[in-house]
From TrEMBL:
<keyword id="KW-1003">Cell membrane</keyword>
<feature type="transmembrane region" description="Helical">
    <location>
        <begin position="166"/>
        <end position="183"/>
    </location>
</feature>
<dbReference type="Pfam" id="PF01925">
    <property type="entry name" value="TauE"/>
</dbReference>
<dbReference type="InterPro" id="IPR002781">
    <property type="entry name" value="TM_pro_TauE-like"/>
</dbReference>
<dbReference type="InterPro" id="IPR052017">
    <property type="entry name" value="TSUP"/>
</dbReference>
<keyword id="KW-1133">Transmembrane helix</keyword>
<comment type="similarity">
    <text>Belongs to the 4-toluene sulfonate uptake permease (TSUP) (TC 2.A.102) family.</text>
</comment>
<keyword id="KW-0812">Transmembrane</keyword>
<keyword id="KW-0472">Membrane</keyword>
<feature type="transmembrane region" description="Helical">
    <location>
        <begin position="227"/>
        <end position="245"/>
    </location>
</feature>
<keyword id="KW-0813">Transport</keyword>
<feature type="transmembrane region" description="Helical">
    <location>
        <begin position="195"/>
        <end position="215"/>
    </location>
</feature>
<feature type="transmembrane region" description="Helical">
    <location>
        <begin position="99"/>
        <end position="118"/>
    </location>
</feature>
<protein>
    <recommendedName>
        <fullName>Probable membrane transporter protein</fullName>
    </recommendedName>
</protein>
<feature type="transmembrane region" description="Helical">
    <location>
        <begin position="31"/>
        <end position="57"/>
    </location>
</feature>
<feature type="transmembrane region" description="Helical">
    <location>
        <begin position="69"/>
        <end position="87"/>
    </location>
</feature>
<dbReference type="GO" id="GO:0005886">
    <property type="term" value="C:plasma membrane"/>
</dbReference>
Length: 247
């Protein structure tokens, strides 16, 4: 990779990491939206592998009460695995444009209505079955579309977690989603060939996450909510645009 392309990619991952550090998500979306400006799409996608997986792990282990989060989200995570394995939907490599558009519209709609004050009610005593059900749906849609956030993010937001706990829960959930997606796709020669470049992008991504986390600590709960939901809307709009652009 030429030095200019490497520096450009590093700056993109710093920016993407900042978004993830503030809201707990959005690194792949920001990176894949900007990297193709100078890099081939295949290389751009392969650069996401290590930063996406390892920043999600790092995000989780830096969160408070990791053990408590694992116990509480065990049903959701098990559901993600079962949903991915048993999904009747076509693999992401052959997913229809309509599927991606519907997912993007659903995500955008949820972000907008939540921004004006609505969100899923707390599951309460129904959490024991609501979590696994949300996980099954998330796992199935993950392998079908490559989108992790429906319905896992609305469900996690309904649990009443504080900022730090929510960010950690997102990191844990997205880690499992990333792994099941990779298993569903198999090992790509392109990803393997660019593994070193992908690993080198981890540093800029972590730097961006550190900056974003510092900024998050200065945000009020209201401002964090606005940033979080604004990122959801951005993810939804981007999913729709990507689907339409691929036709």
């Amino acid at each position: 990779m030429p030095v200019s392309a490497f520096l450009f990619a590093a700056l993109v991952f710093v920016l993407a990491g900042m978004v993830k550090g503030i809201t707990g998500m959005g690194l792949p979306t920001v990176a894949i939206a900007l990297l193709p400006i100078l890099l081939p799409t295949g290389l751009a996608a392969s650069l996401l592998v290590m930063p996406s997986l390892l920043t999600n792990i790092w995000q989780f282990v830096r969160s408070p009460r990791c053990t408590a989060l694992i116990k509480r989200l065990a049903g959701l995570l098990a559901g993600v695995v079962f949903g991915a394995v048993l999904s009747p939907l076509p693999n992401v490599s052959s997913a229809s444009t309509q599927t991606l558009v519907l997912l993007g519209l659903a995500l955008t709609f949820y972000g907008v209505v939540a921004l004006v004050g609505w969100r899923l009610p707390h599951p309460g005593r129904h959490e024991w079955w609501a979590g696994p059900l949300a996980g099954v749906a998330t796992g199935a849609l993950t392998v079908a579309s490559g989108v992790f956030v429906v319905p896992s993010v609305p469900y996690l937001q309904s649990l009443g977690l504080d900022k730090a706990e929510l960010v950690g829960a997102l990191g844990l959930t997205f880690t499992v989603c990333t792994v099941v997606l990779w298993f569903s796709l198999g090992v790509s020669p392109t990803l393997s060939a660019n593994a070193l470049w992908s690993l080198l992008m981890l540093g800029p991504a972590l730097l961006g996450m550190w900056i974003g986390a510092a900024l998050r600590g200065r945000l009020s709960d209201l401002m964090f909510k606005r940033c979080f939901l604004g990122t959801l809307i951005m993810l939804g709009v981007y999913t729709v645009m990507r689907a339409i652009g691929s036709t």
